[in-house]
Design brief:
The protein is mainly alpha-helical. The protein is built from 6 helices and 3 strands; from the N terminus they run αβααββααα.
Length: 181
């Protein structure tokens, strides 16, 4: 399988999973937390267990984590969350803004792999920079996996914190209502 095919399958698979489980109006519960994290962690294990761990590769991974954090925050801000007062359930709604964040992230990953595979001048430029930074091509896949992992986990952590605040507000307003009687 070519690197481009592999990038399309992995990025497309993560995108499809996120859209199938997060897009639209959904109840935010354990399954909405666990499913994306476990799926990306599965990819993570497969690609990170043999990842280079030299200093320069670690720096590259930190850059990937930083990019993932930015995209994770964008995905977080593109997710509406509220407490349904009649059921007490925490709800989320992901719309086209959420899809757009994921499409840009996926297009960036696939575009990079395509350019390295099919554009000789870009491939040369990347190769020269990788050589000057003492990086091997084995560090590229972990970079993208860490990006995706941090993007998913960062959004889930932020939503979980917001969910806890909403639950506390619902409990406080229920208590206030009961005391007012």
């Amino acid at each position: 399988m070519s690197d481009l095919s592999q990038a399309v399958e992995i990025s497309g698979g993560i995108f499809a999973l996120m859209m199938a489980t997060q897009y639209g109006t959904r109840h935010f519960g354990l399954h909405k937390i666990a499913m994306p994290v476990l799926a990306v962690a599965g990819f993570g294990y497969a690609y990170l267990k043999d990842a280079p761990t030299d200093h320069n590769s670690i720096v590259l991974y930190l850059v990937g984590a930083g990019i993932g954090a930015v995209f994770g925050l964008l995905a977080y801000f593109a997710t509406a969350m509220w407490a349904d007062r009649s059921t007490g359930k925490i709800m989320t709604r992901c719309t086209t803004a959420f899809v757009s964040v994921w499409l840009v992230a996926m297009a960036a990953r696939i575009g990079f792999v395509w350019a390295v595979s099919d554009n000789a001048s870009f491939r040369t430029w990347v190769g020269e920079h990788m050589m000057s930074l003492h990086l091997t091509s084995d560090a590229i896949a972990p970079f993208f996996v860490i990006w995706a992992l941090v993007m998913v986990v960062g959004r889930v952590v932020a939503l979980t914190a917001r969910s806890a605040r909403l639950r506390a507000e619902v409990r406080a307003s229920s208590t206030d209502f009961a005391l007012a009687r």
